[in-house]
Amino acid sequence: MMASSYNAKEEDGPHSGTPGLGGAAVTKSKKPDNTAFKQQRLVAWQPILTAGTVLPAFFVIGIFFIPIGIALFVTSNNIKEFEIDYTGVDADSPCYSCAKDFSWNSTTSCTCSVDFKLEQPFESNVFMYYGLSNFYQNHRRYVKSRDDSQLYGDLSALTNPSKECEPYRTSNGLPIAPCGAIANSLFNDTLELYYVDSNGTRKEIPLVKKGIAWWTDKHVKFRNPGGNDNLTVSFEGNSKPVNWRKAVYELDPTDSENNGFINEDFIVWMRTAALPTFRKLYRIIQKKSSNTATLPSGNYVLEITYNYPVLSFDGRKRMILSTISWMGGKNPFLGIAYLTVGSICFFLGVVLLIIHHKYDTRNTSADIPS
Amino acid sequence: MKWRNPVDLVRDALRGQRARDKDLRNLVSNLPYEGLEKSKQPNRHFPGNAIKTTKYTLLLFIPVNLFEQFHRMANLYFVGLAILNFVPVVNAFQPEVALIPICAILSLTALKDAWEDFRRYQSDRKLNNTPCLIYSRKEVGFIERCWKDVRVGDFVKVVCNEIVPADLLLLYTADPDGVCLIETANLDGESNLKQRRVVPGLCISDPRFEPESFNGIVVCEKPNNNLNHFKCYVERPDEEKVGAGLESLLLRGCTVRNTDHAVGFVVYAGHETKSMLNNGGPRYKRSRLERRLNVDVIFCVILLFAMCIVAAVGHCLWLQAVPGVPPYLVPDSAGRLDSPALSGFYMFFTMIILLQVLIPISLYVSIELVKIGQIFFITNDIDLYDEGTDSGMQCKALNITEDLGQVQYIFSDKTGTLTENKMVFRRCSIMGVEYPHKENAIRLNVLEEAESEEEIIFNQPPRTGWSMDFENSEPEGRHHHHHHHGSRRKSKVSGQGQKDVAFSSPLETDVIPDRKLLQQISRSQEKDPYLDFFLALAICNTVVVSMATARRRRASWFSPSGRTNNPLETVSTLVKKVGSLFTSGQKPIHQHLTVSKSDMVIEEDDLSSEGIREKTEDLDGLETCSLHAASPSHKESAASDNLRYEAESPDEAALVYAAKAYGFTLLARTPDSVTVRLPSGKDLVFELVDTLAFDSNRKRMSVLVRHPITREYVLYTKGADYAIMELLGTPYAEHFSGSEKNIASDTQHHLDCYAKEGLRTLCITKKVVSDKEYMSWSLQRQRALAAIEQREELVMETAVQLETNLSLLGATGVEDRLQENVPDTIIALREAGIQVWVLTGDKPETAVNIGYACRLLEEEDLVINMSCKNKAVCTSILDCTLEEVRRYDENPQNVDTTPNISLVIDGRTLVMALSPDLENRFVDLTKRCRSVLCCRVTPLQKSKVVKVVREKLKVMTLAVGDGANDVNMIQAADIGIGISGQEGMQAVMASDFAISRFKHLKKLLLVHGHWCYTRLANMIIYFFYKNVAYVNLLFWYQFFCGFSGTAMIDYWLMIFFNLFFTSVPPIMYGIMDKDVSAEILLGLPELYRTGQGTGEYNFFTFWISILDAFYQSLVCFFIPYLVYVDSDVGLFTFGTPLNTVSLFTILLHLSIEIKSWTVVHWIIQVGSVALYFIVTLAYSAICITCNPPSNPYWILQSQMADPMFYLICIITTVVALLPRYMFHVIKNSIAPSPLIQAKLLDRLDPSARERCIREWRSFRGGVHLEDSRSSTPPSPALEIPVEMYTKSTGAAELMEDEFVLNVITDNYLRHNGPGT
């Protein structure tokens, strides 16, 4: 025993590496460590995907997905949504005249009103959206055409906007605030909603214009330069975007908390939409009391100050009224998807069950097929 | 430093350049110039001994490294993209952001390079600062300096066990004979001692060497990397030239052994030393998988271009369809919009930038990392570690690991690869009489069994009494055996690490003399051919005699302990240890030993139990020796027993040991004399006149000695039979006995028999050279030796001149034993679908025999022997054979009974068969053969065969060999494997992988090869999939943003996605996944076939995964799209779930592919997801305006507060992965692949698993590969001139033989036993 232990020691003794290779000398036995890791013998879980083993997974998926799908579908169906296109493409539509002879440069505003009827009352809070179609707010160069530091209230960016804003960076030698194509193309239609009584009198529905933007946008990302007081002074050295009728500090003169860069309509617009057909939150119609509907069924009039030209690029404008649930707006797709996938999984589970009975039993026995 | 004229400096530099470039260098001693400034030093032009293997310097690291990195296409592509991004019209990202990937990759690679370089720097520094002794005139003695201070022209003293710091011309040694023994293991792995001698005629007379007296000029050749060649002469002041060669050169890196000290003159230093010139870096080969991969990368490029063109055209059309100027089209600063066509053109480039990830550049980096990991595991495999040589697996080529999993053809060398290259003397034939040495054969058989079934033997008394304990009583003798086996067993467990003992096993050293031959010798007189035969065995070699007591100890390469540590001290402490072992454990034996040998104490100096066993073994040898020794005292012969023979060729050692067994003990060998003790106890000192060294052209070696009694010049020659037979003069016997026996033909007959038994044969001859003849020859010889041009040719010529008219003494048969588990390995490799070819220089008979022994050929095989002299015959044979074989194959009757065809072909026929017009037919024939044996092939032919097969059949070839003659073949094959064995390191140096035993090939290929291949193949497929799946999200989005190149995912997150979130899992998968366990892979070699040919990574799997990627990206894009369509979702709010969903999909996709989950897998998979959320959340929380225009601020947070986000993630992931999951499930259930079935076996408990494996194999027709002793008669003979070899009778014969032998042994014992 001693002899062998001695040998082991001698083994551990210095051995020389090949000097020519210039490598470091290996000063002990080159015998590799016999550890589970180095010998690749770590305890391992080796799942084999066979019908038998995955069967439960499919049924579990089915069992989970179908109720979720039903819940989503029901929720989506309970959401009330009303949509009206007021672009005025057809000659008989109320806004036809406004749409026809309108451009960014006109100074007078055109108004038109659209009548519509809600068949069903909208019970909870109603969100009023404007929707644009065929408007590629996600165009690469459009998306880039903004200066976030300027919107963050950075004074240097105010006087010297980012190059990305070109060609909406300066106007008449003055830096534009807010600069860039996004701001320049701010949606500037004004929508007002009136309820028409059975006796024909119009009652204006109060539209809340605050709380439509993300809280973080309003309070963190967007700031007026030099605070919210006296925006006129703050934006003194700036020019308004070329397409704008009024300066940025005139967006909401009534409320200093909603004026300038922190105007919520502006903030909402600045969060560029992902898809060419999109909607943006415009106003919120608060539910007044629990026993009356926010928007009872009946006739309504939508008064539009038609400022925003879309016909030139074949765009469409819509006004959307929608209630909202935990899953957001009305979209039956997800519910249907869950239902479908759940059913498919269930079906596949059955198929696998058959396969399992036909084939898998063979594998469990030791009989190995060719 | 003094100011020097720049012109002088330039002139000096030019002179230095010339001096270095000259074919001959004149070197003088530095001593007269000691202390002078540098410009006066005569040897200043030659580099110093400091070495620098680093590639970079601190200052130039960045530029040099960048320069190197930009040699890669991939990096150029990246840089091109980054530059493209700086062009404003096409940029997709912020230009700075686009620099990140390239910077990351460049800096990672630079870090790796820097680290490697730093390691090299450290080891260089360590080497450079190793102390050594340099002579100083000022100090009048040797003073300690560093290696780096050694310069050409210095005198360096090397002490025993110290490493030689530079290439030294040996001038003086402490040995009175002027001999210095060195070990070159560091250099070429050869562990035997080599003898070097001082340059003759210089400074020998001095009792103490005075370097200052050296005033000659050393003229030597330009440095070269040939380790076995050196030419030089010393011009003395009296203008006499003294030639010196390799025999006087101490190479840097060698270790001085058994010589107290030696002094040498530095001829080459530093980078000019032979060992440094031999130092090649790692080799780079391109694996087949990588070649395939590059094709797919081109597919990806095509795909990328297609997608970019789609986007460009789409953008163009979209712009044309837009009426007017919508507010979302941003004009340039001049207010103009580009024309749709121009925009489309720009868009093409923008899209290339946007979709760049499609070209998996990171894949190359990942593959490198994966291969490093794979190599880590291969080199750390304990099963590939050989205790005997203390060497594990070495990977020299870093990038062809996966090729190991695709091997289809193995070309193997025989000697040293399949066999041990440790020779055992088996038989001899003297003067036409055969001496079969049956007792010895029995002994070897017993030993073999002992090796394989140690347990059993250990507990049993030995079956036969082969070891002759003549003087001991029966019980003690038994005890003796007991001890023997016990210690043998122990030594196997513990003592095998003794590499420094070249021939330690009793298997090789001990020979039991043939009884008949002993009697013959005892009758023989002084000038008997029998005596000559054994004298030739003892003398005709280059064996170095060393004493067992002065056993070498390995000194550390760096530590100077070798100098301070007297080996004897260690020995004496060990004596105590060993002694105590003895007294405690095996007292009777101890007594036995001490009683029988008075100087046993010295013997116990032997450092291990193994040594002790040897001594006990040697006892047998001693006793047998004394069988008819006149009166050798125990003491004397004990001294001779202490001898240890170290030979460059194992055959020589085996022969010397054999001679020793018959009492012809080689006692000492100096450059000038050989001392042999005769059986009578008389010591004969032969004057060694010359040694005509072995070379592969002559295939023989000779020694010319002067007989001390007759004063005749006698030339003993030994060599290959065909090299000797044609040189024979009149038969020796005619002078002698007068009997007109034709010794040559008888011996030839015996030689053929030996060869058939698989023995290596050598012929031994003698020639008496007359004084006159010698004188004339000696003059020529002298001239040849002094020549510096064409010296080899001249020297060889003189050798040929002398080696004529030889008289045949006899022949020997030496067995080269198969390495352990060779048959197993070959069977396994064959079952794995690998064709094994053996290419050997041996004669066909030997090769065929070995072929049967290692199960390359089976007894029922049809063996076709092709051997023809001219091409016409060769052509017809080839045609006929091919025709027959084809007909046989096509015959439906033979479907089940098709015999396995094996081809044996000799070198000459091979040349013809490989000629361009026959090549195709030959390859076609070999394709149908299960195994091919090529005999008598030259190294060049070996590589030719490999090349032809590789190119004609387009298969993955692997060549394995151990010697210098295999280097060509190793380099020609796709994978070259070197076996670090007895024959030096040339093969290993040239190889891609180095293993120590042939059996390791089994695990290397079947397990590691398979793993590496499947891992890498799957990893690459996954990588392609991953990139396509992710990038396509961006592509689909282009359809909704007017093909404007918008990305809905934050650029940083996109980059992180590839760089951090999804990069580690595939790398880990590539390194660690295990589809089937090693046990199953070894148990079922058939599983290896999955990787052969196209394997798992092929056109089909690639496009399936690309299609799957398209499907998954469609799902990942369109489910969120349909959820968010016509909603108020923002651009990047939309991108966040997409990014998350694809992360889940991509990671879970990998989870489906991962075959075995270890804790590492879990950590990395879960960690990747966690990292994604942590990084993204942190980034979204911090970045307010930092990365316009994406504004990630609070986006993920708001998304994560939305239940829809989770619902989208869940359903998308499920839908995306459902097809792949289903595909796997259904395939595994209905038609499981062999791998899956094997994996199922893994779950069974071991015994059930074994049963299943057996069943499986029998099902798959592995029966014929099972041991089949009952040989079936050979298959129908072909009506063509082919020879058949069958070994059907061999086994029976052998059995009978054994039976007879047993009887003989019994008789023998009775006769000669106790009485003698």
UniProtKB/TrEMBL annotation, chain A:
One example of a Gene Ontology biological process annotation: phospholipid translocation
InterPro entries in the record: CDC50/LEM3_fam
Cellular compartments annotated: Apical cell membrane; Cytoplasmic vesicle, Secretory vesicle membrane; Golgi apparatus; Membrane
Domain of life: Eukaryota
The keyword Metal-binding appears for this protein: no
UniProt keywords, alphabetically: Cell membrane, Cytoplasmic vesicle, Disulfide bond, Glycoprotein, Golgi apparatus, Lipid transport, Membrane, Transmembrane, Transmembrane helix, Transport
Topological type in the membrane: Multi-pass membrane protein
Membrane-crossing segments per the record: 48-74, 333-355
Primary location group: membrane
One GO CC annotation: endoplasmic reticulum
Location of region: Disordered: 1-29
Keyword Protein biosynthesis part of the UniProt annotation: no
One Pfam family this sequence matches: CDC50
Family according to the record: Belongs to the CDC50/LEM3 family.
The name this protein goes by in its record: Cell cycle control protein
Lineage of the organism: Eukaryota, Metazoa, Chordata, Craniata, Vertebrata
